[in-house]
C-alpha cells in the first residue's frame, strides 16, 4: 500500500490568482469569492463539505454533507435529523468544524466554531424543499440507525407525503456554524502554500498569514 500511495501524484490542479494581502476584511466575502470561482470552473459539488463533530467518547467524527446557506450574519447552514449521530453530538457538544476542498483549484477552506439551531420554521422550510424520496426516508426512520426490517416503511411515508405535502419530520433540524476561525489554503506544487487565517476578535476579524 505504501508504494501504491507514493506512486500517486498530488497537487495537480491549477490555482487561480490569490493575493492574501488584498483579501477582504470579512472571511465571508472571501469564501463567497472562492466558492463562486469553484462554481464557475465547473468543479463537481462545490457545496460539499466535511462536518467534523465530537462524539460522546471524545473521539472526532466526520462525514460529508451539503452546505445549505451562508447567512448575512455569517452562519454556515446544514441540516439533518436531530436523532442522527451528528445531531446527538451537536446537542451534547455544540461545536464543529467544516472543511471544503476544491482540488482542481488547489483550494481548501477550514472553519471552526460554535453551532446553533435555526428556528423550527426554517427547518420546516428546508425539509419541504427536499425531494419526495429524501423526505420519505427522513420521515420513516432515524439516520445512522440499522435499517428496519419493515421494508414498506419508506413507501408508506412517501404515500403520506403525497397526501400531506406540508408534513415535516418532527426531528428535522437546521444548524448554523458561526466560525471563530476561518483558514483559506491555496496549494502549490512546490509546497509553498498560501495560508490565510481569520480569527474572530470582538465584532471583527484579525488576519494572519501562516507558514506553509
Task: Write a short abstract of this structure.
The chain is an alpha+beta fold and 212 residues long. Helix content is 27%, strand content 33%. It has a domain at 8-119 and 176-210: Roll (Pnp Oxidase, Chain A).
- Low-pLDDT windows of residues: none
H/E topology pattern: HHEEEEHEEHHHEEE
Q: Give the CATH H-level superfamily of the domain at 8-119 and 176-210.
A: Electron Transport, Fmn-binding Protein, Chain A
Task: Name the average pLDDT.
Answer: 94
Distance between the termini: 27 Å
- From the alpha carbons, calculate the radius of gyration and give it in angstroms: 20 Å
In DSSP terms (H or I, runs of 4 or more residues), the helix count works out at: 6
Largest sheet: 9 strands, antiparallel
Please give a structural write-up.
The protein has 212 residues and is α+β, with helices and mostly antiparallel strands. The chain has a domain at 8-119 and 176-210: Electron Transport, Fmn-binding Protein, Chain A (Pnp Oxidase, Chain A), CATH 2.30.110.10. It contains six helices and nine strands. The protein has helices spanning 2-7, 27-40, 85-92, 120-128, 132-140, 153-163; strands at residues 48-54, 60-66, 69-70, 76-81, 95-102, 107-117, 172-186, 194-201, 204-210. Strands 1, 2, 3, 4, 5, 6, 7, 8 and 9 form a nine-stranded antiparallel β-sheet that branches. Helix 5 packs across helix 6 (153-163). It is globular and about 55 Å long. The protein starts with a helix and ends with a strand. The relative contact order is 0.18.
Amino acid at each position: 500500500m505504501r508504494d501504491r500511495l507514493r506512486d500517486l501524484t498530488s497537487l495537480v490542479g491549477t490555482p487561480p490568482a490569490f493575493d492574501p494581502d488584498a483579501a477582504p476584511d470579512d472571511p465571508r466575502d472571501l469564501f463567497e469569492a472562492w466558492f463562486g470561482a469553484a462554481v464557475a470552473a465547473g468543479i463537481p459539488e462545490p457545496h460539499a463539505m466535511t462536518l467534523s463533530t465530537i462524539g460522546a467518547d471524545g473521539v472526532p467524527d466526520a462525514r460529508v454533507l451539503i452546505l445549505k446557506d451562508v447567512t448575512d450574519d455569517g452562519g454556515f447552514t446544514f441540516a439533518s435529523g436531530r436523532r442522527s449521530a451528528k445531531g446527538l453530538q451537536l446537542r451534547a457538544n455544540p461545536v464543529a468544524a467544516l472543511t471544503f476542498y476544491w482540488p482542481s483549484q488547489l483550494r481548501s477552506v477550514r472553519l471552526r466554531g460554535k453551532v446553533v439551531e435555526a428556528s423550527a420554521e426554517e427547518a420546516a422550510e428546508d425539509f419541504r424543499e427536499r425531494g419526495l424520496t429524501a423526505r420519505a426516508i427522513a420521515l420513516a426512520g432515524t439516520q445512522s440507525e440499522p435499517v428496519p426490517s419493515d421494508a414498506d416503511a419508506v413507501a408508506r411515508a412517501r404515500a403520506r407525503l403525497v397526501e400531506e405535502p406540508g408534513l415535516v419530520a418532527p426531528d428535522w433540524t437546521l444548524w448554523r456554524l458561526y466560525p471563530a476561525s476561518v483558514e483559506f489554503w491555496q496549494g502549490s506544487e512546490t509546497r509553498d502554500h498560501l495560508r490565510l487565517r481569520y480569527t474572530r476578535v470582538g465584532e471583527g476579524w484579525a488576519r494572519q498569514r501562516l507558514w506553509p
